[in-house]
Design goal:
Distance between the termini: 32 Å
CATH superfamily of the largest domain: Spore Coat Polysaccharide Biosynthesis Protein SpsA, Chain A
Radius of gyration: 20 Å
Strand order of the largest sheet: 3-2-1-4-7-6-8-5
Number of domains: 2
CATH topology of the largest domain: Spore Coat Polysaccharide Biosynthesis Protein SpsA, Chain A
Number of strands: 8
Largest sheet: 8 strands, mixed
Shape: globular
CATH architecture of the largest domain: Alpha-Beta Complex
Order of helices and strands: EHEHEHEEHEHEHHEHHHH
Helix content: 40-55%
Length: 332
């Protein structure tokens, strides 16, 4: 099968992973017309790694964030279809062919999304439980969870991404989430059950900063509010609570961990202020739990990890420097 697809790989100081990402794009079982690496002002050898691959187009820019890097690749691309692959992720060999096939069979669709596998820093697979693909009502589902775990899981129509305005630079940690909401308002999605991308977690992902993710996700949802249909208003408000609970619980966990560490009081104070600002109900719950533990009324114990929409259940097995994925994890 021949495909006219661009793979855009933004990279900021991810040279250690970039070679794997590029090789996976070049090894697609259908013809990827172009691979574009956008070096977002890296201080490592990102440019050298890109130049080491024949046929890869390199764009260099001053550091301005992942959204601007993706948008630069979007503007430079020339193909009808496009994949935004994070520099630390890896495409399966038939990722583009699968997405292309589904888009050809569904001419009204603007995006096709497959499934992910979770890997660690060294590429070893980590245990994770993903919910099944969302079959329909994708906009409704997106209000409560970002079921497209990382941009590399999706093949999109370039024209639709351009018409939607691309990636918003104001909230880079959730810019992909904002794009999916805009696309789902105006076009159809197709979700399938095949694995298309390995989603790498390595301890430096932006998506692992719960304060950043909560702030960005709430900003995206508030900007989306004027476009939410009246019948989905209850779903919208429920989703706000779900996102606050999810990231707020992560912040509370980090707060408690900081309090247990020598010299962690300053970080705990910052986390507490963020929790109080963005999720006061979670702050009150955290304080109540801490008081109950100290009074001997309950035991301190780990809680299961549950994302909005039930996209991730239980506690995954992972290496010490990895953390469980979250709904809006894609910008790193």
């Amino acid at each position: 099968m021949t495909s006219t697809c661009s793979v855009v790989i933004p990279s900021y100081n991810h040279a250690r992973f970039l070679d794997d990402a590029i090789r996976s794009a070049l090894a697609q079982r259908c013809a990827v017309t172009e691979v574009i690496v956008v070096d977002d002002g890296s201080t490592d050898d990102t440019a050298g790694v890109a130049r080491g691959h024949r046929g890869v187009r390199l764009i260099r820019q001053a550091h301005s964030g992942v959204s601007d890097a993706r948008n630069a690749g979007l503007r430079a691309s020339r193909c009808e279809l496009i994949v935004f692959l994070d520099a630390d992720d890896i495409l399966f060999p038939d990722a583009v062919a699968t997405g292309t096939r589904y888009l050809a069979s569904n001419p009204e669709a603007v995006l096709v999304a497959g499934r992910c596998r979770l890997i660690g820093r060294d590429g070893a697979e980590l245990s994770a439980h993903w919910a099944p693909p969302v079959p329909c009502a994708h906009y409704r589902a997106l209000l409560s969870t970002n079921f497209i775990r990382t941009p590399g899981a999706a093949v999109m129509r370039r024209s639709a991404v351009l018409a939607s305005g691309g990636f918003c630079p104001e909230h880079p940690a959730a810019a992909d989430y904002a794009l999916y909401l805009r696309l789902a308002r105006h076009g159809q999605f197709v979700c399938h059950d095949r694995h298309v991308v390995m989603y790498r977690q390595h301890g430096a992902n932006m998506s692992l900063d719960a304060v950043v993710m909560l702030r960005a996700t709430l900003a995206v949802l508030r900007a989306e509010r004027p476009f939410v249909p009246r019948e989905l208003a209850p779903e919208y408000h429920k989703s706000l609570r779900s996102w606050k609970d999810y990231y707020g619980d992560q912040i509370a966990d980090s707060l408690r961990e900081s309090l247990r560490r020598p010299g962690g009081a300053a970080r705990a104070a910052r986390l507490g202020a963020a929790l109080l600002r963005y999720h006061p109900r979670g702050f009150v719950r955290h304080v109540g739990r801490k008081l109950a533990v100290e009074a001997g009324l309950r035991r301190a114990e780990p809680r299961p990890i549950v994302t909005p929409g039930g996209q991730f259940g239980g506690t995954p097995q992972r290496s010490a420097d990895d953390k469980p994925t979250e709904p809006s994890s894609v910008s790193r």
